[in-house]
Amino acid sequence: MLKVSFILPVLNEAHLIVAQLQRLQCYRDSGHEIIVVDGGSYDGTPGLATPLTDLMLRTGPGRSLQMNAGASHAKGNLLLFLHADTCLPRKVDKLLEQRIGHAKKPWGWFDIRFISTAFVYRFIAKAMTLRSRLTGVCTGDQALFVSTDLFVGVGGFAAVPLMEDVEMSKRLRRHAKPLCIYEKVVTSSRRWQDKGVFRTIFLMWWLRLLYFLGVNPHYLVKQYYPQRTGPNVAVDYLYPKARILVFAREPRLGAVKTRLQGVIGKERALALHEVMLGRVTATVTQSQLAPMALWVSSNKHHKLFLSICNIMNIYEQIGEDLGQKMAHAVASTLSEDSINTVLLIGADCPSIDQSYLASALDKLAEVDIDAVIGPAEDGGYVLLGLKTPAPELFRCIEWGCDSVLRVTLQRLEENGLRYHLLDRRWDVDRAEDLERLAGLVPPLSF
Length: 446
Known about the structure:
This protein is α/β, with parallel strands linked by helices. It contains 15 helices and 15 strands. The chain is elongated, with a radius of gyration of 24 Å.
């Protein structure tokens, strides 16, 4: 039986979201579900949407990130990605069930028309429909639908700030022929009206040509959103050749913050782990210092991980112990030609802030510094920055004891690596560390 998960990525759509969700309520009554994923609205969109959804999620901005997060929570066997200003045909669930039939890997989209009936918009809609049918590539306005199994199989949307629908279509068509639904979705012409019809036509075709020629979407998005800034839109990273690697355990009850479970219980220990991971990854993303990669102990498709970053930036740790896992992550990252610096941090240090990360990268930019270490009060470290893999730093160390920092500094000196020590910071491993959480700005509660 078909169950559709309607997934709506939104950002500041307060003027549209209620009417859109009201149109979809009939599908909730029929056993389908509505998931809204907000990318950081400041106009009250989440509050307006929550009563009309089965699930209201919040992520960082960026449609691919938002849609991946929605898909990771979906319970339906068919995902339908819908813009807030696009209206579906009547009884779309019955229509899809009829058209999909017995297809093993169903995916596709709808033909399109604009709300405005002016000749120019009718022409644009026909051109979009024809192009999508000839190329096997759709746009987000056409309400892409795909079976959940196929979506998971291809790895979800790519971590790109623009053309995520084009990129996804190209991967999906390698697995199955798309289903083109003749019944039309009706979408707003506001984008064309705001920017000018002919200017928008030229811009869209120009961007598609550049994308076809291999231009990085992070540069294309600057032309599409010239006024926007932020981690999801054409970031000019201060250190584009660096990577910040965040190590994290899979959030599972009883498997995280084990030393604190006897004090606060398993449930609160899990909540603490999730809140701290969210805090440190938000710090990295908002700093715009360098791209982030999330290295996880297991289950890279966990819904929390997918709400933090795109699946293509999530990696599973490889190795028998923590040392081997860190050594592998550093070595594999530095093996990429475009990367010459890594920072390695965990989720256990909520006192890491943007200035701390900046200090580490600033020091590593100096020619006479090979490594940077952020000491921890308990004798370990909360940050390690390197320009070279240096696997010897991670071998035969008793992790979790008070000799980790001392042994690491000794290894650095033995291998002739020049290092810089940052300020000492505290992490959350003991009962007395919990009292400090309220003093953070903003306070950390769980």
